[in-house]
Amino acid sequence: MKAIRSQEAMQRSVATSPVYGRRQNELYRRTRLMRAAIRARSADRLFPLIMEECDSFREVCETTDPPLDYLTPTSRAILDEVRTINREAGRPIAAYTHDAGAHVHVFTTQPRARSIARRLGAIPGVGETRTLRPGAGVRWIRTARSKDPSVELRGR
Question: What InterPro entries does this protein map onto (predicted)?
Answer without folding.
Answer: GHMP_kinase_C_sf (IPR036554), Mvd1_C (IPR041431)
